[in-house]
Amino acid sequence: MSYEIEKTEAEWRAQLSPEEYHVLREAGTERPFTGEYTDTKTVGVYSCRACGAELFSSGTKFDSHCGWPSFYDARDSDAVELLEDNSLGMRRVEVRCATCGGHLGHVFEGEGYGTPTDLRYCINSVSLTLRPAG
Question: How confident is the model at residue 89 (pLDDT cuts 50, 70, 90)?
Answer without folding.
Answer: confident
